[in-house]
């Protein structure tokens, strides 16, 4: 359940998101002949005016129609993005920009998110348009686990399941590529907060259980989060001789991913029936 923080501010600007902003719907929900987007206010239609959310088969001309500005952080750092792209991956943005959710007259093309960090938001914007996490400050000889964990928290706040899945995939891949694991600080960041970080914690415990980390865990001068160590002991007692789960597409999906309407099941992975 996504709730809109009271810190979100809608600002009146001259560039209103005009007639297309009266409702948000998916392509599936709209009869084929409906006129979704009207260019001028003079065109009167009796159907609800809607934003067409993209699916993989949506023609490019329907994407990136409505520019919006997101003012991020206490300094209102501006990000100029596209409404359709934002709404297609995040119920948070669908709600925030939907006048039906009590902001009927005040929705404009600017949304302020003062509690978000502009750097994290830039990684998100990069992912939004490229579906990769290959930002220049995420690349490098040492994996930026700390930054990716912070990005996961942002993704969680914004309800972006597909980004959370991309982050766990990236962390597993980078851990193998550099033969490294997260630091004691990272374990405290993961286990110390209130956030639900199930899939990501699961992966981190698996990385420590399957990689050769015994000397690292015993000898590191910084302290590990105690709850992390308990989970690691439990995992080591149970893990058996199975292969490292993050290297297997199905196991990775089942153990670390979440899937929902905006983040459909990974290809080739069957949904397990509940016994
Ligand atoms: Zn998956």
TrEMBL record:
It holds the Pfam family BTB. InterPro entries: BTB/POZ_dom, SKP1/BTB/POZ_sf. It comes from the Eukaryota. Residues 66-137 form the BTB domain. This is BTB domain-containing protein. It comes from Letharia lupina.
């Amino acid at each position: 359940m996504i709730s809109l923080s009271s810190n979100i501010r809608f600002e009146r600007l001259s560039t209103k998101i005009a007639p297309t902003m009266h409702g948000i719907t998916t392509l599936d929900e709209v009869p084929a002949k409906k006129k979704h987007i009207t260019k001028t206010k003079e065109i009167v239609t009796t159907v609800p005016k809607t934003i067409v959310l993209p699916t993989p088969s949506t023609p490019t001309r329907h994407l990136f129609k409505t520019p919006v500005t997101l003012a991020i952080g206490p300094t209102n750092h501006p990000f100029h993005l596209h409404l359709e792209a934002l709404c297609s991956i995040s119920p948070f943005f669908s709600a925030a920009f939907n006048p039906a959710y009590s902001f009927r007259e005040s929705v404009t093309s600017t949304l302020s998110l003062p509690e978000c960090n502009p750097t994290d938001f830039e990684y998100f914007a990069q992912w939004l348009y490229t579906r990769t996490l290959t930002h220049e400050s995420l690349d490098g000889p040492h994996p930026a686990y700390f930054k990716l964990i912070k990005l996961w928290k942002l993704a969680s706040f914004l309800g972006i399941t597909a980004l959370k899945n991309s982050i766990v995939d990236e962390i597993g891949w980078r851990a193998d590529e550099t033969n490294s694991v997260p630091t004691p600080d990272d374990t405290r960041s993961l286990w110390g907060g209130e956030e639900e970080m199930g899939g990501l914690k699961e992966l981190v415990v698996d990385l420590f259980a399957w990689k050769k980390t015994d000397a690292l865990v015993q000898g590191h001068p910084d302290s590990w989060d105690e709850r992390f160590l308990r989970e690691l002991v439990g995992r080591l007692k149970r893990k058996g001789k199975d292969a490292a789960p993050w290297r297997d597409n199905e196991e990775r999906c089942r153990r670390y991913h979440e899937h929902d309407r905006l983040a459909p099941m990974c290809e080739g992975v069957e949904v397990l029936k509940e016994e």
